[in-house]
């Protein structure tokens, strides 16, 4: 009875959410400007209301997918009655309209969370923060409703069945990758809102950074996981075994991550030392702007890829205008307000402050180089100066050396003291770690690969140099005042463990990248039943070639018997080449044999006629470490948030901190 | 005061050095890694450089795909329905590679006029002709009807045969 009305209810809820977002933006901001408590008090109920109606809208859209309501255009274009229910539910965000609705829903969730967990914020600060988030939300909801309404209907003649979800997206990776990524992207709106609120209120003391830090860490952790999932998905779903292509869409997610990494470090300096205040504000603005730019690049149809759902130019224009307003207005505000609040805090050039400054500069340089390589071809194209593409060698040539330099400073940073470190004591504490890193780095390629390799040495030394000084530092700290081992570790704050895990994660990722880039073996071969090929000590034998029917596809399938050396048992791998019927789209289903130290990867290429197939056989050592490292980083980010320091909240100012700031 | 000034000087020198390294690396990397796009017409006119990585694109000509029976070598012709370009490649062609469909190849042009491809990219697009090629043809003074109709005809015929 009510079923045909579900999309209408969703549409209506979305409109109410937009109105509430507008109220949440305008009234509290005006109230904070004119000091009217009643107006400021609008922020929290509106945030809750907006979130509620976004949930209703989102639930209605999901219900339309689950109930196969093909009178809704997005459902008809992206779902099919044969899809399993979990793909129906995730198909909601497998298209442009649904994904921007998810974006808005997540923004609503972050806003609601801020309004819940920031009770100790001064009233006007909270009003401004929620007001700024309301502005962003109103902009996005207007975008959804005006250019990409997910509830648009195909009435009165709905199609009998849907066009099906793109087979590339029918995968568990798709179920979790976009929400994670969006949690990250949108999460940076919180620190952005805090920075803008601080600028508006003219209160750029270090207080706002203390409130904003946990939110930023969480957003950064989600983004790390989101990027890692995207890489993992590309690895096993695209069928060529690559894990990072420097594709503009990947870069679009890497950019806010790099800026966000700089931001979480800069926030630490501002909170602890009161330094870099303007810089932190600028980074907060840049990080969120890059998130918006990522959304623009991915959603505007400027780029062609699996991600570019939209091809309606008005959408791209709308996001571009939204991006322009956000960036322009915040930078203008920054230019007007920031100089007023700057003040100097002294530190010497061998101190944690200084090392973190170097870290920030390097990360910003990395961000700029990636941005340049990503946007340059688009700019040239937009100006009609020719069509070029910037290939992976550009990014590798810049990104790899910069990462190594970054690692050099990362090894020293955590051991240095704030404000001033004696060079001698620092040297005394790191020389052993440095020597060990160098020794292992020089020897490992000989042992593992049989011959010396400069790139491997460089990568391993960088990774070990990040980790070993931390280990030594933990060893030192593990002794408590009475000299008992390990007792001291319990006293270390969770924030410290978060830092350790974050750095360890990066080192693990670097090891993964180094080993898989230098020791992966990839062979494209022609195989018929009975043929054997040896790759990296494994013998691959095709024992069978046949065809198979799946629920919504037909497939050519091979059975490959794999044996290592003289091991008689071995195991079987079954790659497939599928043809999805509804769209007539071919897909490679990779056979993977994962392991912590190596993956075996078999993908069917193409039918060469005469009963033989082109096959990709790959040996990928340490490839799992890439994603494992990203997970460790994310866990580190979360651990730092759970730290008691933040839960104790800012009700009473930390007695240790205040005098130091005054003194500064 | 002097110490402070010295410190500031060091900061500035450090920043300048870092920026110089970054700019230098960027320019070097960009110079050697920009791939320009050429259509078969432009290549036939001799606009494309030899032995330097370029991108080229067009439609895969009907009946032009020839596989070597013993290896993964393959040769095919890329056409914009004005000029043809022979492409040789060794490896696995992408899933969406088909005769009569748009394709973009990355590789080096050889002195005798064929292209040694390192990478073959096939994209599914509403238009049969890759947009870069359509643009290049228009710039060269061919009206879109000249080739777009042909492309559509071929594509429809091939689809009907399937």
TrEMBL record, chain A:
Principal location class: membrane
Keyword Nucleotide-binding (UniProt): no
InterPro entries hit by this protein: CcmF_C, Cyt_c_assembly, Cyt_c_biogenesis, Cyt_c_biogenesis_CcmF
Transmembrane segments: 12-34, 46-67, 100-118, 125-146, 182-202, 214-234, 254-270, 279-297, 317-336, 357-379, 399-418, 430-448, 454-471, 492-516, 622-642
Location of this chain's protein in the cell: Cell inner membrane
Domain Cytochrome c assembly protein: 93-300
Keywords: Cell inner membrane, Cell membrane, Cytochrome c-type biogenesis, Membrane, Transmembrane, Transmembrane helix
Record's bilayer topology term: Multi-pass membrane protein
Keyword Transmembrane: yes
Stretches assigned to the Cytochrome c-type biogenesis protein CcmF C-terminal domain: 320-644
Any GO molecular function: heme transmembrane transporter activity
Domain of life: Bacteria
GO biological process: cytochrome complex assembly
GO CC, one annotated term: plasma membrane
Pfam families (alphabetical): CcmF_C, Cytochrom_C_asm
NCBIfam families noted in UniProt: nrfE, PRK10369.1
Chain's role: Required for the biogenesis of c-type cytochromes. Possible subunit of a heme lyase.
Family indicated by similarity: Belongs to the CcmF/CycK/Ccl1/NrfE/CcsA family.
Full protein name: Cytochrome c-type biogenesis protein CcmF
TrEMBL record, chain B:
Membrane-spanning residues: none
GO cellular component: plasma membrane
SUPFAM superfamilies in the cross-refs: Heme chaperone CcmE
Superkingdom as given in the UniProt entry: Bacteria
Compositional bias annotation for Basic and acidic residues: 147-162
InterPro entries attached to this UniProt entry: CcmE (IPR004329), CcmE-like_sf (IPR036127), NA-bd_OB-fold (IPR012340)
Pfam short name (any one): CcmE
Region (Disordered): 140-162
Annotated keywords: Cell inner membrane, Cell membrane, Cytochrome c-type biogenesis, Heme, Iron, Membrane, Metal-binding, Signal-anchor, Transmembrane, Transmembrane helix
Segments on the Extracellular side according to the record's topology features: 30-162
Location in or out of the cell: Cell inner membrane; Cell membrane
Segments on the Cytoplasmic side according to the record's topology features: 1-8
Protein topology in the membrane: Single-pass type II membrane protein
Single GO molecular function: heme binding
Entry binding sites for heme: 124, 128
Gene Ontology terms: biological process: cytochrome complex assembly; protein-heme linkage
Family, per entry: Belongs to the CcmE/CycJ family.
Record function comment: Heme chaperone required for the biogenesis of c-type cytochromes. Transiently binds heme delivered by CcmC and transfers the heme to apo-cytochromes in a process facilitated by CcmF and CcmH.
Name assigned to this protein: Cytochrome c-type biogenesis protein CcmE
Organism the protein comes from: Halomonas organivorans
């Amino acid at each position: 009875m009510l079923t045909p009305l579900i999309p209408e209810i969703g549409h209506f809820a979305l409109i109410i959410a937009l109105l509430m977002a507008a109220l949440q933006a305008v009234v509290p901001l005006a109230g904070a400007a004119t000091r009217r408590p009643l107006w400021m008090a609008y922020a929290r109920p509106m945030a809750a209301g907006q979130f509620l109606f976004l949930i209703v809208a989102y639930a209605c859209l999901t219900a339309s997918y689950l109930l196969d309501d093909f009178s809704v255009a997005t459902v008809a274009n992206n779902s099919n009655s044969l899809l399993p229910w979990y793909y129906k539910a995730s198909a909601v965000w497998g298209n442009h309209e649904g994904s921007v609705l998810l974006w808005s829903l997540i923004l609503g969730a972050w806003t609601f969370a801020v309004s819940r967990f920031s009770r100790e914020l001064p009233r006007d600060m909270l009003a401004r923060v929620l007001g700024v988030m309301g502005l962003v939300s109103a902009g996005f909801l207007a975008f959804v409703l005006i250019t990409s309404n997910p509830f648009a209907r195909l009435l009165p003649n709905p199609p009998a069945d849907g066009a099906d979800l793109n087979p590339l997206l029918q995968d568990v990776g798709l179920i979790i990758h976009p929400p994670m990524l969006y949690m990250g992207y949108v999460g940076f709106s919180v620190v952005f809102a805090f920075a803008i609120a601080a600028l508006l209120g003219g209160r750029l003391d270090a207080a706002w950074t203390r409130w904003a830090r946990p939110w930023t860490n969480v957003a950064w952790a989600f983004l790390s996981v989101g990027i890692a999932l995207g890489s993992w998905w590309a690895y096993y779903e695209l069928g060529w075994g690559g894990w990072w292509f420097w594709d503009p869409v990947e870069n679009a997610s890497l950019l806010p991550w790099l800026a966000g990494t700089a931001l979480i470090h800069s926030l630490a300096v501002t909170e602890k030392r009161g330094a870099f205040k303007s810089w932190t504000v600028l980074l907060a603005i840049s990080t969120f702007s890059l998130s918006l730019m990522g959304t623009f690049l991915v959603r505007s149809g400027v780029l062609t890829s699996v991600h570019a759902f939209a091809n309606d130019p008005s959408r791209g224009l709308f996001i571009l205008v939204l991006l322009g307003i956000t960036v322009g207005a915040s930078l203008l505000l920054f230019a007007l307000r920031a100089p007023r609040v700057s003040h100097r805090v002294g530190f010497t050039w061998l101190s944690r402050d200084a090392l973190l400054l170097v870290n920030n500069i390097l990360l910003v340089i990395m961000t700029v180089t990636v941005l340049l390589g990503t946007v340059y071809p688009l700019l040239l194209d937009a100006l009609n100066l020719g069509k070029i593409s910037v290939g992976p060698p550009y990014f590798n040539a810049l990104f790899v050396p910069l990462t190594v330099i970054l690692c050099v400073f990362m090894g020293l940073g955590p051991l240095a003291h704030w404000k001033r470190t004696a060079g001698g004591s620092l040297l005394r504490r790191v020389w052993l770690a440095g020597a060990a890193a160098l020794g292992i780095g020089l020897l490992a390629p000989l042992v593992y690969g049989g011959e010396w390799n400069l790139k491997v040495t460089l990568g391993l030394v960088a990774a070990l140099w990040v980790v070993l000084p931390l280990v030594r530092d933990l060893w030192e700290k593990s002794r408590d005042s009475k000299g008992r081992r390990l007792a001291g570790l319990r006293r270390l704050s969770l924030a410290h463990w978060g830092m350790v895990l974050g750095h360890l994660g990066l080192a693990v990722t670097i090891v993964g990248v180094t080993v898989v880039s230098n020791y992966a073996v990839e062979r494209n071969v022609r195989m018929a039943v009975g043929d054997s090929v040896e790759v990296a000590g494994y013998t691959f034998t095709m024992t069978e070639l046949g065809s198979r029917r799946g629920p919504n596809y037909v497939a050519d399938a091979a059975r490959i018997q794999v044996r290592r050396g003289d091991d008689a048992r071995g195991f079987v791998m079954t790659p497939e080449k599928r043809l999805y019927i509804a769209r007539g789209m071919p897909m490679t289903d990779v056979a993977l044999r994962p392991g912590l130290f190596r993956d075996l990867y078999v993908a069917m290429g193409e039918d060469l006629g005469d009963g033989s197939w082109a096959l990709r056989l790959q040996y990928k050592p340490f490839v799992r470490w890439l994603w494992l490292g990203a997970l460790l980083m994310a866990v580190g980010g979360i651990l730092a948030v759970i730290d008691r320091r933040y839960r104790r909240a800012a009700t009473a100012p930390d007695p240790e901190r205040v005098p130091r700031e005054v003194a500064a | 005061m002097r110490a402070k000034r010295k410190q500031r000087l060091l900061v500035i020198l450090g920043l300048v050095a870092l920026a110089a390294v970054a700019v230098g690396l960027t320019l070097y990397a960009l110079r050697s890694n920009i791939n320009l796009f050429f259509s078969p017409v432009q290549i036939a006119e001799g606009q494309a450089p030899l032995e330097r990585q370029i991108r080229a694109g067009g439609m895969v000509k009907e009946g032009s795909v020839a596989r070597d029976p013993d290896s993964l070598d393959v040769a095919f012709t890329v056409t914009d329905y004005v000029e043809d370009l022979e492409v040789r490649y060794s490896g696995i062609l992408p899933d969406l590679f088909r005769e009569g469909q748009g394709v973009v190849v990355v590789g080096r042009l050889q002195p005798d006029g064929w292209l040694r491809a390192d990478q073959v990219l096939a994209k599914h697009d509403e238009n049969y002709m890759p947009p870069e090629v359509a643009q290049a043809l228009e710039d060269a003074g061919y009206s879109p009807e000249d080739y777009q109709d042909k492309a559509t005809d071929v594509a429809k015929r091939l689809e009907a045969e399937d």
